[in-house]
Amino acid sequence: MNRTTLATAYMPLVDAAPLIVAQELGFAAAEGLALDLVRAPSWSSVRDMLAFGRVDAAHMLSAMPVAMAMGIGGVQVEVSAVQVLSVNGNTIGVSRALADRLRGRGFGFGFDDAAAAGAALRDALDGPLRVGVPFPFSMHAELLYYWFEAVGFPADAVEVHTIPPPLMSAALAEAEIDAFCVGAPWGSISVERSEGELLLPGSAIWRFAPEKVLAVRRDWAETEPHLLGRLMRAVWRAGRWLAQEDSATTTAELLARPEYLDVPPELIDRALTGRLTISPRGDQRRVPGFIEFHRGAATFPWLSQAEWIADRIARRTGRDPAAARAASRRAFRSDLYREALADTGAEMPGASRKVEGAIRERTAEAAVGGRVWLEADGFFDGRVFDPDAD
Amino acid sequence: MRTHGNRATNGKLKDRLSIVVVEADRDRAVQIVDALDKADDYDVFVISEVSSLARQIAARKPDVVLIDVENPSRDTLEELAIASGPQDRPVAMFVSGAGGGMAKAAVEAGVSAYVVDGLQPERLKPVLDAAIARFQLFRQMRNELAETKRALEERKVIDRAKGLLMKARGIGEDEAYAMLRRTAMDQGRRVADVAAALVTAAGLLS
After folding, report:
1. Residues B51, A176: C-beta atoms closer than 8 Å
2. Staple partner for B184: which of A57, A62, A298, B191, CB 3.0–4.6 Å?
3. Which of B72, B73, B92 sits opposite A74 (nearest CB)?
4. How would residue A330 be classed by pLDDT, with cut points 50, 70 and 90?
5. CATH classification of A90-208 is 3.40.366.10, yes or no?
6. Where in chain A are the domains?
7. Which CATH architecture has domain B4-144?
């Protein structure tokens, strides 16, 4: 069969798996596509490659299309998040010195209680807490700001710095930062290098946080709807395969290859199975749903998710939240998702917005053609985000 | 025109563009500064240490920041898209016009430009032209270097394959090379690929 080649940019992270698996295990080929996967040196570079047409699709931080829709960053090409690639998957880690200080004050590193960890961190401060994130507009940054605010950190007690994930562990070792929030496998790598200890999974702050999205140019989506549909189906099927328990080993080996992540497969496996080693002494923690590629309609781009991100960025950067939320609704494309995946068996929620944080446990909701199982999506402090409020 | 030595200490003149170049490699940094000097009279400051990059840049209040597209620390610059104080003007990735023609050419050459809010594109053009020309040269040099390295590697593999054939078949070097070439022609492959396959197979069998 004659295959159409589609240049697709990605960052070497575990959550690029749906794209890599789509290409390597034949899901792309089944749709008559060959993904030309372009590994990028930075998120800005992913954005530029997409905006300037070097690639037609990209693995992107969920907050990037939202920030772009809000006019932040200079690049004014309209980008559409057509599908969520992954939910959760980040870890928050601290330096060995800070971990010792926390332990000395009796903190137990339970790894599931963001309120307790936040309070322990707040009480152990002896200066501003310097935290590294990979990009200023990212779920990493928003989770941290949300957490610090809810735990009651004084406004000047935290400095958030942007540091590329591969340099995060070294920044911790050189005491340039005290803590980080980073995607897999970079948290585990800091543990492996004995430079950091893990404090919390991102999911301890928000149980169901949209992490990466499949992004395309808005005008490309309009001119190439069929090509986009084929890409989305291939990637969605790759995500469904990734959600099977016995896919983890194969995926870890595949992603570990030098041309992709180029890190030991064992470290990738930790993220895929949710079995994390949190300290250089070998302490283990089990995190169900550490990273989701499929379950709970994980790939559905909820407009309310985009609105939560927009609302948070607007409030902390002094912009109008209502205008930001309206702009963000143009960036997340549940309409295209419904169109492209209609005949695949993908679960289609009845509505495209929901109150974020309101699902306390796995629930069946009414959906197009039946019902859809949604996973718990609570925030650690019990608050909810109602996109129709205000 | 001033020499490099006093760049860092000279006060900034009001109408002269101030440019920050982020480049860890000293030789490359010097070449970029020289290229900019030829274009016009600018205040150029080089940052070679990427720790606290955003703060280092913010402290200089530059009009333009130039950074290698391949530099992973580029993402740090995105912090500057939000002004940190009421007196500060945000610095954002430069895109001109709807298609971003000039920015596209720059990114393709391997350099990205961040520009302070409100700077007129015509003031930026000579800066970008000079930077683009210089980065295109860097890219060309890098490609040539990679090509030389690859050719060397292939020579080594071919030599090893020749050695294996000579030993296994008791033939001379010319004959061994002729065999490799013939096989490559028959299979429509490159001599280097046939040699690599032979070396791999020999490794597995030994």
Report:
1. yes
2. B191
3. B92
4. very high
5. no
6. 4-88+210-259+293-346, 90-208
7. 3-Layer(aba) Sandwich (3.40)
How many CB atoms sit inside 10 A of residue A381's CB?
A: 15
CATH of domain B148-205: 1.10.10.10
Q: State the pLDDT confidence band at B97, using cuts at 50, 70 and 90.
A: low
Classified by CATH at the fold level, domain A4-88+210-259+293-346 comes out as D-Maltodextrin-Binding Protein; domain 2 (3.40.190)
The partner residues of A215 in beta bridges, in order of sequence, read A58, A81
Taking contacts as CB-CB distances below 8 angstroms, the residues of chain A near B108 are: 52, 54
Read off the pLDDT of residues B108-147 as tens digits, 9 standing for 90 and up: 889 989 988 888 878 888 898 999 999 998 888 888 888 8
Helices (H) and strands (E) in chain A, counts: 16, 15
Contact list in A for residue B82 (CB cut-off 8 A) is: 72, 136, 317
**Residue B205 reports pLDDT greater than 90:** no
Contacts of B52 in chain A (CB under 8 A): 161, 176
At position A205, the amino acid (one-letter code) is: I
Q: What are the sequence ranges of the domains in chain B?
A: 4-144, 148-205
Q: Chain B within 8 Å of A51 (Cβ-Cβ)? A: yes
The set of residues, in sequence order, having a beta carbon less than 8 Å from that of B86 and lying 6+ positions away, is none
Per-residue pLDDT tens over the stretch B18-61: 999 999 999 999 999 999 988 888 999 999 988 888 889 988 99
A161 touches chain B (CB under 8 A): yes
Read off the amino acid at residue A112.
D
Q: Output the six-digit token pair for A215.
A: 């992004």
Name the nearest CA neighbour of A139 among A357, A361, A312, A339. Answer: A312
**Taking all residues of chain A, what is their mean pLDDT, rounded to a whole number?**
95
Interface probe, candidates B71, B73, B82, B124, chain A, greatest A C-beta count within 10 A: B82
Instruction: State whether A72 and B95 contact (CB < 8 Å).
Output: no
User: Are A4-88+210-259+293-346 and A90-208 equal in CATH topology?
Assistant: yes
Q: Which of residues 27-56 of B touch A (CB under 8 A)?
A: 50-52, 54
pLDDT tens digit string along B139-177? 888 888 888 998 999 999 999 999 999 999 999 999 999
Q: Which residue of B has its CA nearest to A78?
A: B98
The alpha-carbon gap from A337 to the nearest alpha carbon of chain B, in Å, equals 27
Residues 322 through 381 of chain A touching chain B, CB cutoff 8 Å:
none
How near does any CA of chain A get to the CA of B171, in Å? Answer: 38
Distance (Å, whole) CA B98 – CA B115: 17
List, in order, residues 6 or more apart from B53 with CB less than 8 Å away.
B22, B47, B73, B76, B77
Smallest CA–CA distance, residue B166 to chain A, in Å, is: 33
In this model, does residue B2 exceed pLDDT 50? no
Binning pLDDT at 50, 70 and 90, where does residue B184 land?
Answer: very high
Beta strands in A127-246 (DSSP E): 129-133, 158-162, 179-183, 196-201, 210-217
